[in-house]
């Protein structure tokens, strides 16, 4: 199963309130989405591929992406394509928090930070996955960084 999930960036330094128009898109594999929750069967490897869609006329890219599970750093995706896998063999059943953050660099804009966070429900079997997953593309909002 391949489900694209769009998570939109960012919070930025308040430099002329310029925020680049970019979207962080995450494609999730071995999982389904329902009511803004990612469901994965225990023992499956939750796959994530993150990319940036740049809607500006300037060059841009993301930096190293840090992934967190229940607020603990799992690891980083350093180079493109930004791919990360989370084994769920030893994850307890129930709800967990998946987070990621990454710097966003776009010419003529301040350095920004993209973020996303989603609950992940680890279930015992495929019988517990939702029957009719929601639309797999989700868009967030763009915000300025607050100090």
Mind explaining what this structure looks like?
- With 147 residues, this protein is mostly beta strands.
- The strands form two sheets. Strands 2, 4, 5, 7, 8, 9, 11 and 12 form an eight-stranded mixed beta sheet that branches.
- The protein is elongated, with a radius of gyration of 16 Å.
- It is built from no helices and twelve strands.
- A hairpin with a 5-residue loop joins strand 11 and strand 12.
- The relative contact order is 0.32.
Task: Annotate the secondary structure layout.
Blueprint: E1 2-7, E2 11-12, E3 22-29, E4 32-34, E5 37-41, E6 45-54, E7 60-62, E8 65-69, E9 72-77, E10 82-87, E11 94-106, E12 112-123
Parallel strand pairs: 5-12
Antiparallel strand pairs: 1-3, 2-12, 3-6, 4-5, 6-10, 7-11, 8-9, 8-11, 11-12
Name the average pLDDT.
83
Beta-strand residue percentage: over 45%
* β-strand number: 12
Q: Helices and strands: which structural class? A: mainly beta
Shape: elongated
- Residue ranges: pLDDT <50 for 5 or more in a row? 139-143
The number of helical runs is 0
End-to-end distance, in Å?
40 Å
Rg of Cα set: 16 Å
Largest sheet: 8 strands, mixed
């Amino acid at each position: 199963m391949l489900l694209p999930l769009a998570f939109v960036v960012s919070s930025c330094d308040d430099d002329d309130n310029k925020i680049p128009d970019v979207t962080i898109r995450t494609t999730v594999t071995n999982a389904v989405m329902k009511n803004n929750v990612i469901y994965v069967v225990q023992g499956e490897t939750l796959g994530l591929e993150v990319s940036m869609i740049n809607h500006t006329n300037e060059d841009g890219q993301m930096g190293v992406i840090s992934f967190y599970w229940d607020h603990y750093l799992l690891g980083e995706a350093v180079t493109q394509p930004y791919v990360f896998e989370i084994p769920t063999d030893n994850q307890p059943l129930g709800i967990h928090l998946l987070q990621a953050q990454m710097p966003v660099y776009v010419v003529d804009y301040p350095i920004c930070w993209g973020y996303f966070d989603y609950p992940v429900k680890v279930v015992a079997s495929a019988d517990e996955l939702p029957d009719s997953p929601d639309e797999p593309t989700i868009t967030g909002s763009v915000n300025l960084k607050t100090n």
